[in-house]
Amino acid sequence: MQFRQLGARLLAAASTAALSLLILSCGASNTIDFLYVTSNLQSPGQINVYEVNSESGALFQIPDSPYPSGGRNPVYEVATPNGLNLFVANHDDNSIVLFAIGTDGKLYPLQTVTTPGTEPVAIALNPSGTALYVLDYYAPAAPGQPSFTDLNPGPGALIVYPITPGPSGLSSLGSPLTVGAANYFPVQCFPSNLTVTPNGNFVYVTNTNAVVVTTSPPVTGTVPTLPASCPSSGTVSAFSISSSALTQVSGSPFSTGAGSEPTGILADPGNGSIYVTDTLLNKLYTFSIQSSGALSLASTVATGTMPMGGTIVDSKFLYVTNYTDGSISIYSLSSGLPSLVTTSNAGSSGPLCVIADPNTQRFLYTADYIGGTVGGAELDPSTGTIITNQGSPYVTSGQPTCVAAITHPGGNKNGL
User: Fold this and answer.
1) Of all helices (H) and strands (E), which one includes residue 121?
2) pLDDT value, residue 15
3) 216 to 12, 123, 166, 220: CA distances (angstroms)
4) What's the rounded Cα separation, in Å, for the pair 67 and 365?
5) In Å, how far are 4, 47, 188, 222 from 155, measured between CA atoms?
6) Which of 19-28, 98-107, 112-121, 271-280 has the weakest average pLDDT?
7) Higher model confidence: residue 17 or residue 384?
8) Residue 243 and which of 10, 133, 207, 387 are 20 to 30 A apart at CA?
């Protein structure tokens, strides 16, 4: 489970390692996971695929890696719970690409869809893998009006694509869910991220309602101006989920406080809370989820500078990456609310997207945008502290934007 980043406006870094040493120390027989890392230095974008060693957590790329992302500036990716498919959002082409994942971790493009709005910044799956949620930075404009863009900014949009599972992992995306005549659900200005609760009952979207400018993508020639219609501070939009519709929760959107710029967001495994990072005020908010889906602020704790990404491990520890600090804040969840354990050097420059290996939850990986690498660390299951992996950081195609992972497909029947 991981925070969704600001559509890759903030991402993570590290350095490089000797690939030959990794190949000597890792082998397919020791592989516990496959790791997928999008990089946007090249056009089209690239997806680096790594095997994760079971003993050391070390990474090495599979022989055919990297693969084209199917578009320009890939900023986000998610893998289906069954490990058969990978979805990638290409920001500059307004596209989502669906890949099949082979039993050897290789990628096979199946389908490309164009989002209703522009500049997709984050995507998420429901727990059953039957719906894909896409967050467009800009919603479609009204009929007869120019499209919302950086030159003509407007509100964002949440889009829901049904996923039809097929034989041998050949799933497909259907037409977006409609509400009236529209095929999207409006949110507020400059949305950054989204999360779905593990029980599949609610989806939440962070709206910065501000122009967050960093050194990382998506970078445009024109920094958008803030429309007068935007609220003066950040919010979280909340929607309840049914089998055929989304309904905005009463009271939504919920304020994250004066002067706030919420970006990362993560649902707790127990379905009772969401965690939200604030890149301007350097805070981590915990909101309690009411039975209706409404939110109430439960706690606020300090983070490092410009917190963005995060992941929960074993329901016990919460890890938050701090983009400017190059650090990871580690929180214990034993009391039910985040309590700072320590802040560790992430071994990177500008860390953002972070994930724990899904098989053992022993290893942590960050997409390190500025350093152009992937950072790796081993977790202490009793204290939550981390130690950098031998060989970390690991080489990428440059400017990595996010990370996804699947368990080694011991029983996957994708036939590829």
Assistant:
1) strand 118-125
2) 29
3) 9, 18, 37, 10
4) 20
5) 19, 30, 5, 17
6) 19-28
7) 384
8) 207
Using DSSP's 3-state secondary structure scheme, residue 119 falls into: strand
Cα atoms found within 13 Å of the Cα of residue 164, Cβ hemisphere only: 8
Bond into 400 cis (ω within 30): no
Which 3 state secondary structure label does DSSP give 378? strand
CB 35 within 8 A of CB 374: yes
Question: What's the one-letter identity of residue 364?
Answer: L
3-state secondary structure of 168: helix
pLDDT of residue 221: 54
Helix ranges (DSSP H) in 13-147: 19-25
Judge whether 333 and 310 are in contact, CB under 8 Å: no
- Collapsed DSSP state (helix, strand, coil) of residue 25: helix
User: What are the structure tokens assigned to 210, written together?
Assistant: 């501000």
Q: Which residue has the tokens 């053992």?
A: 360
Strands (E), 262-350: 262-267, 273-278, 283-289, 295-302, 307-313, 317-322, 327-332, 339-345
Q: Which of 390, 395, 325 is nearest to 367 (CA)?
A: 395
- What is the C-alpha radius of gyration for the chain, rounded to an integer number of angstroms? 19
Domains of the chain by range and CATH? 19-407 (2.130.10.10)
Any idea which of 4-18, 77-91, 308-322, 400-414 has the lowest mean pLDDT?
A: 4-18
CB 403 within 8 A of CB 78: no
Nearest to 394 by CA among 53, 125, 31: 53
State the pLDDT at residue 165: 85
* C-beta separation of 118 from 124 below 8 A: no
Which of 64-73, 214-223, 363-372 tops mean pLDDT?
64-73
Give the closest residue to 67 by CA, choosing from 121, 117, 35, 108. 108
CA atoms of 374 and 388, how far apart (whole Å) = 12
Cα(first)–Cα(last) distance of the chain, in Å?
Answer: 26
CA 120 to chain centre: 12
- Token look-up 């989204």 returns 194
Q: Are 84 and 398 in contact (CB under 8 A)?
A: no
Q: Which of 63, 133, 70, 120 is nearest to 99 (CA)?
A: 70
Please report which helix (H) or strand (E) contains residue 34, including its range: strand 31-39
CA distance 341 to 61: 33
